[in-house]
Amino acid sequence: MTAKISRRDLLKLSGLAAGGLALGFGTPRRVIAGSDYTHHGGDPSQRNSYFDSLKQYIPGSETLDPDEMRLSFMGTSCIPSLSQAAVSVFVELGNGECFMFDCGTGVTPKYFALGATLDKMSKIFLAHNHSDHMGDLPYVYAFGQSFGRVWPLYVWGPARSGFVWKDPDGKYPLGKKPLEDGAADICAALKKFCIWHTESQSFMYTSINSYDVPKPWDTTGSRCKDAYDIVVKELPWRNTGKDSHGFANHDNIAYHDRSKGVKITHFPAVHCREGAVSYKLEWNGLSMIYSGDTKPNQYMIEQAKSGVDVLIHEMVVPADVWVKKLGLPDTQASIDGAQAVQDSSHTPQKALGYILNQIDQQGTAPRLAVGTHFQATDDTIKAALKDIRTWYPKGDVAVASDFVVVNVSKRKGPTVRRAVVSDYAWPQAPVPAAEDCATPKYWKYSDETKTTKVQAPEAQLDPNALVIDPDLYNAR
Length: 476
What we know:
By secondary structure, the protein is α/β, with parallel strands linked by helices. The protein has a single domain (7-419), classed as 4-Layer Sandwich (Metallo-beta-lactamase, Chain A), CATH 3.60.15.10. It is 22% helix and 19% strand. The chain is built from 13 helices and 18 strands. The chain has helices at residues 7-13, 49-53, 108-113, 131-134, 137-142, 183-193, 195-200, 298-304, 319-325, 332-345, 349-362, 378-391, 470-473; strands at residues 55-57, 68-75, 88-93, 98-101, 123-125, 153-158, 230-235, 253-257, 262-268, 277-283, 286-290, 310-314, 368-372, 397-399, 404-409, 413-419, 443-445, 453-455. Helix 8 links the parallel strand 11 (286-290) and strand 12 (310-314). The longest helix is centred in the C-terminal third of the chain and has 14 residues, at 332-345. The relative contact order is 0.16.
């Protein structure tokens, strides 16, 4: 059954400022690091009663049905806190496929806590190149080999913006050539940034002999097989799948594996500068849209009005709330500055309600709408729902925080739960057997017969380094 926040729920939320209990539930339970609100009494800025009211999901306790999809929110705020990392959504399908939508700062431990190893985090779709959407790429890339990914990292993201600016005085302060700001540029820089790391780990096995380049969807022509390769597919971010006359031309396909029935398309997002996208995933009669960050736009309504199971859309608190929460001076100048950021980039709470209303009016409302990229506490959730409901009074709405999990099937519809995880979970490392792996970059012969090549872990060390003999510290 879908977790529905209705007008009745709003009435319950109205008592929060006085320390009331949200959604009719009692003292919050400690679920994840940073969510122990019991020391803060009824302070609505220090608790998320909506999250705590959700039924539990125990990671690893259930297998997805062949016709089921699971969406796990691993990072849900552009302003990270212990309870909310930056932005990422993990999508698992009943056919075994899985995808990351964005890879923001601080999300990797959340994936590990949920039991997702780095071999499951090898297909990443970036909405744009802000750090809160790609800040964990260095770790996911560089440590992929250590935790099970012995094949390339695959990244999809917007192509270069092509933007050139001439100021009001007619000058080109950035030059007349566009910046090198596409997904391929970012990933090339990432490889350089991580070169010491990747070389230092290349005495280990970084590829398997049996790996076949996935031709059904890797249309880049890549023949890469190594864990320290990055295969990038850049997306023409203006494309919508239709020509100028409104006829379908399918020019916005990011990923299409016909053998597994998975298609991911992209369409323009309007965020901060040219060169941002939103995504739509379709599989087995199920669908979801992930907005990334964007100003309210008609592209979203056009893409969603045919009906989607889950619409994940960003929303932001009002500028004056942002100023207060960030501890900025309570001045009009501060508010104007925050408003300028929002005007360039984001969807206000009430605008999300309007978008949902227009989708409903022009077509079919989503089975579930999820607000994310949002600092989710009782006080902010209450205000956001009030704004959304001015335009969208009846549809099912959830507010995401880290470890909100949504299962979707045609028969059951969306079900919203909260994952119960350990603060002390270790990442698992499904490393293949040595005999299945290709010879590592730094290797040596195993013996004088010179028949078997094995890892050479000391090959890159200074031969004159003052290393302590292990016999000394193992003597007792």
